[in-house]
Structure formats: C-alpha cells, structure tokens
Amino acid sequence: MREGFTVSDIEIVKLTQANIGDADGWTEVLAASWGADLPNFPAPSVAELVGSVSRPSVHARMERWMAKIDGRVVGVIEGNFGLTDNTHLVEFELDVHPDFRRSGVATALLAKLEELGAADGRTTYISYAPDTIDPAAPRPDAGQKFLEKNGFVKGLDEIRRAADLDLVPAAELDDLLARAWEKADGYELVQWVNRCPDDLVDGVAYLDGRLITDAPSGDLDLQPQKVDAARIRENEVRAISRGQLNVDTAVRHVASGAVAGWTNISVSAGQEEHSWQGITIVDPDHRGHRIGTILKIENHRLLRAYRPKMKWVQTWNAEVNDFMISINEAVGYRAQERWIAYQKKS
C-alpha cells in the first residue's frame, strides 16, 4: 500500500479520445500489475489501446475508467457492455498498480462500474482472478479475495496455457498432422489472413455463434451470440483498422461445402513475440475426424509464415474441457495458472 493518501484523494476519470494521452499511464498500470501477477503474459501496447478506444465495436460499449492520484494513473477498469447480445451482462477487467493496492482504488473503480451497470439495467457481472496450480509457481490470491468480499461467487474454472512454438519438434508435429489427415478423408484445408473468403463467411458465422453453446460455461449466465456474415465483416474491418493481424484456418467438407471446423489467432499491433488464440470449434456433425488437431497445427504454421519471430500463443480452456486440452498439450501448450470466473447477480 502506498502511504500518504486517502480514499478521498482518488479521482475516477473516464478514458476517452479527449484524454487519450492517459493511455500511457493505463498501459503502465497493466504492465506493472500483470508483470507482478502473471508471468509470460504481455500487457497491451499504447497503440493497441488507442486503436480500441478510437475504433469501437457497434456490438459492445466499452466503459474504461481510471483511478488517478495526483494526476498519475494507479488503477484501471474496463467493462464490456454488450449491445447486440448478453445485454444483461457486464464483463470486466480490473487492475491496480502493485504500489497502490489495498488502499481503496479497486473498490472505487468497481463501485463506478456497478453504478454504470445499474443505470443501464445490467444484472450480471463477471470477472476473472488468477489461482495457483503449481505450488512452485504461486499466483497471488488477492483478486479472489477482493471479488468474494464484494459478493462474487465462483462460476467456472479455466486454465491459461501458453504454447511455445518451438517446444514440439517439427517432425513430431508432421506425424500428428499426417495421422490426423488419415481420419479426415473428404475434407480440405482453407486458410486466410484478415478477411474470410466470401464462400466461407456464412459457415464461419454459424460456428462463431455456437461457441457459447458448445464450450463449457459452468454456472455463468452467458447467452449465445447473434453472429452473421455482416458481423464477421464488421469485426474484420475494425481489426484491420487497429493494426491487428488475424490468421485463420478452416477445414471444409468437400461434398457439402460445409465449414466443419475453424480456428483463429490474433496478433496485436506492434507485437512480434506473443499472440492470442481465439476460437477453435468443430461442428458437432463433423467431429471424430481429428479436425481440431489439423486446425491447431496448420494455423500455428500460418502464424509463423506471417510472423517468423513469433514465440508464444496464449489460450484458455475450461478445466473440464479434456478433449481440447489434450489437443492443445500435444501441440505445445503448457499450463500457467488457473483463472477463476467469478459472477455476481443483482
């Protein structure tokens, strides 16, 4: 806890384009907070944050608020207010600089977000806190204690894994891929960067909309997303305008033309070492053909083709999702820590 100030010294300010100069302070808080709590977890760059603020989604309103003391940003909260679906919900991330923790900063930020949520008719709040899975690499439990103190309860356990793209020898991946294709007779590979081919976009939208239905969600109050081709196109344009790279791989059923499976990895503007695994999903009608393995290996290779220096891919899976976890570990993902999804309903 930082000495020499009281709760009354905390100023809560919204981050907008008008005060975008505070993006430096915002990212400094995240770098300090994540650096202390989450090894091998990259904070966003100023360019990434500025792009997000200046090019918002039409499907969600992002509320970004800062806690400032003597003009310095010491804590941040980002709330996702869905506009197209999950309009009952606010998902948020809250971080406080390690030097200013246990001093009322987090409480003030959460109070502001809940005030906004109540005014907007939101009844459910979800956030995540890290938890130790390896005693040799402990994670702080302050986030868990804070959320529980404020009325949140556990809803789902997920595990963050990071893939070292150099961990599994290429020959071993070649063998995995060859054996997977033996099970996928009648399917073909399709890959793209930044823009989905027109003849696949409806199938990709269908799979995207299935994610919340198909993936384990525990006790979380999540509703399926309404995804169509227009929404896919809007997301693509916004990502490009932010300087984000997206690499995608799909497996298509040749006879029907159906998109049987699809995966995505995104790379933030200016990032060369870390990337983010997005959706990986296989249509239930096409499971049992090792399509998930094909998607993962082929998309990692596409990523490396466009970012040769890329080292890490970050992903999360529900702890009970044994099938996807087995695929991830086979291609190089290793557990870092548990992320507990906490939920509060009003």
From TrEMBL:
Location of the N-acetyltransferase domain: 10-174
InterPro entries: Acyl_CoA_acyltransferase (IPR016181), GNAT_dom (IPR000182)
Pfam families according to UniProt: Acetyltransf_1
Family annotation (SUPFAM superfamilies): Acyl-CoA N-acyltransferases (Nat)
Superkingdom per UniProt: Bacteria
TM region positions: none
One GO MF term: acyltransferase activity, transferring groups other than amino-acyl groups
Protein name: GNAT family N-acetyltransferase
Species of origin: Actinorhabdospora filicis
